[in-house]
């Protein structure tokens, strides 16, 4: 299997891959697209997880406020 086979598949973040920072201490630089794709997917999942926790906390906060008003 060619390592570049997944670069043309839908959903590959080509622009993010091409705009990787070279000497950023918090983000590693990936030459291989497959490894970058894996890292990018993990970062997206972590971002979604954090957002879902925030929405859950906001919903709980609203429920507490609504129960105090009654």
Any overview of this molecule?
With 70 residues, the chain is an all-alpha fold. Helices cover 60% and strands 0% of the residues. The protein is built from two helices and no strands. The protein is elongated and about 55 Å long. The termini are far apart. The mean pLDDT is 79.
List keywords for this structure.
70 residues; 60% helix; mainly alpha; single chain; 2 helices
Structure in a nutshell:
The protein is mostly helical.
Distance between the termini: 63 Å
Q: Helicity, in percent?
A: 55-70%
* Average of the residue pLDDT scores: 79
Judged by helices, strands and strand pairing, the structural class is mainly alpha
Q: Strand fraction band?
A: under 5%
- Major β-sheet annotation: none
What is the 3D shape? elongated
Give the H and E element order. Answer: HH
> How many β-strands, per DSSP?
0
Number of helices: 2
Question: Secondary structure elements and their pairing?
Answer:
Blueprint (H helix, E strand, L loop, with lengths): L13 H5 L14 H37 L1
């Amino acid at each position: 299997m060619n390592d570049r086979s997944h670069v043309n598949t839908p959903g590959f973040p080509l622009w993010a891959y091409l705009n990787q920072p070279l000497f950023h201490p918090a983000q590693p630089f990936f030459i291989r697209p497959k490894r970058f794709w894996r890292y990018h997917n993990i970062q997206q999942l972590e971002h979604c997880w954090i957002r879902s926790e925030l929405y859950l906390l906001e919903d709980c906060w609203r429920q507490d406020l609504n129960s105090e008003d009654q």
